């Protein structure tokens, strides 16, 4: 069965059900949670796995320029290729939100390898432009 390959894991953020057991997420929900964990973790943040995570955090104080957006797209693509083996990246597009120039919307389009289904998600990332 294809969904077995997609896996089951603790729901993120970790919550409990009505019995006090840890809530689990399955299949494609688990993949989206894994993507959020990868992108939300700065490299070096995990002591026992310092290479885990994504370099987007290096751009927290960068201007939201086209060059910065390109670097963010590359960082996301590289991190997901390395850390999420259940997907193939189709496209990554970073753009500023129309209502908040300090919020970067990172749209990720990917195929789930075992089912060949196309999925996408938007990951919000906040920057604080320096005063120069």
From TrEMBL:
<feature type="domain" description="IraD/Gp25-like">
    <location>
        <begin position="27"/>
        <end position="116"/>
    </location>
</feature>
<dbReference type="InterPro" id="IPR007048">
    <property type="entry name" value="IraD/Gp25-like"/>
</dbReference>
<protein>
    <submittedName>
        <fullName>GPW/gp25 family protein</fullName>
    </submittedName>
</protein>
<dbReference type="Pfam" id="PF04965">
    <property type="entry name" value="GPW_gp25"/>
</dbReference>
């Amino acid at each position: 069965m294809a969904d077995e390959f997609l896996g089951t894991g603790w729901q993120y953020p970790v919550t409990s059900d009505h019995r006090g057991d840890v809530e689990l997420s399955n299949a494609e929900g688990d993949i989206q949670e894994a993507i959020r964990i990868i992108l939300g973790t700065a490299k070096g943040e995990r002591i026992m796995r310092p290479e885990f995570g994504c370099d987007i955090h290096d751009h927290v104080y960068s201007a939201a320029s086209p060059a910065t957006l390109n670097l963010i797209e590359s960082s996301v693509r590289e991190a997901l290729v390395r850390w999420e083996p259940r997907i193939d990246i189709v496209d990554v597009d970073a753009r500023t939100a129309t209502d908040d120039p300090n919020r970067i919307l990172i749209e990720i389009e990917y195929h789930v390898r075992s089912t060949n289904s196309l999925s996408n998600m938007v990951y919000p990332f906040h920057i604080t432009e320096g005063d120069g």
